[in-house]
Amino acid sequence: MKGPLFYAKILLFGEYGIIKDSKGLAIPFNSYKGALKSVQNLSGEAKKSNESLAKYYTYLADLDTDLVSFNLSDLKKDIDNGMYFDSSIPQGYGVGSSGALVASIYDKYAADKITVLENLTRDKLLVLKQVFSLMESFFHGKSSGLDPLNSYLSLPILINSKENIEAAGIPSQKEGKGAVFLLDSEQVGETEPMVSIFMNKMKNEGFRKMINEEFATYTDACIEDFLKGNVKSLFGNVKSLSKIVLKNFKPMIPTAFHKVWEKGITTNDYYLKLCGSGGGGYILGFTEDYEKAQKSLQDYKLELVYRF
């Protein structure tokens, strides 16, 4: 048995903001992927994955919801027969490893599933997002459902608000100098503690004001620029966003990268922002000149995501 492939995702803009109902833009990232597989003799990572799926089965069996039901006997049988999730998506890196797993389980075991081929109305997208939010909460404690949705549809998704999401068209890549890239912090980040820090900060009136007036404003402007292909304006807004994140989200930025972050803003060689919840994993970079950014960041591992 080998299931269809589900890809990683990158939340280009909107980390933390989408928890508080501002805009977000997520795109599939096809360099990493995963699929359900089965083997007779489990060992190593496959065995760990199979054991995790057994716990996940219990979670799904206990879900009390009218939104979705699963073919649980098939799922149980396949897990007992050595099913695991074979994935190249790094865990704790902010690129949706649990999202791809959730999408693959929904695809194979959901009864009356909403398929990718039907006319995806806004209502259907919202139902899918709610279902995925329930399913992914097993991994993170609280999930927006966006990562699995992105992985399941393999389409860019624009989040206008919690109740308003749509599939989005993004400008096709050009062979220009500019780029979006991933910078590997070479340390694993955990979503739950980072979200807890954010929620505690939100109790502070000054922080809430900054989120609503500065962070959300620049995030929305970046999304609009990106979708319309206004590259010049985009970099100005990304620089402002990078400064706001450095000043207000320090705990989410690995300490070793505070100076690297600042260097980008000072030199204009690149601008960094969080990729997912932060705390490790990937950091997202934007540059008007990828070669220059590579030289400036020569001590680090970079991965290209998108060309301008």
Query: If you average the pLDDT, what whole number results?
Result: 93
Query: Per CATH, what is the topology of the largest domain?
Result: Ribosomal Protein S5, domain 2
Distance between the termini: 40 Å
Task: Provide the CATH top-level class of the largest domain.
Answer: Alpha Beta
| Count of domain modules | 2
Question: Which bin fits the share of residues in helices?
Answer: 40-55%
Sketch the major β-sheet. 5 strands, antiparallel
The CATH architecture classification of the largest domain is 2-Layer Sandwich
Structural class of the secondary structure composition?
A: alpha+beta
Concise structural overview:
With 308 residues, the protein is α+β, with helices and mostly antiparallel strands. The chain is built from ten helices and eleven strands.
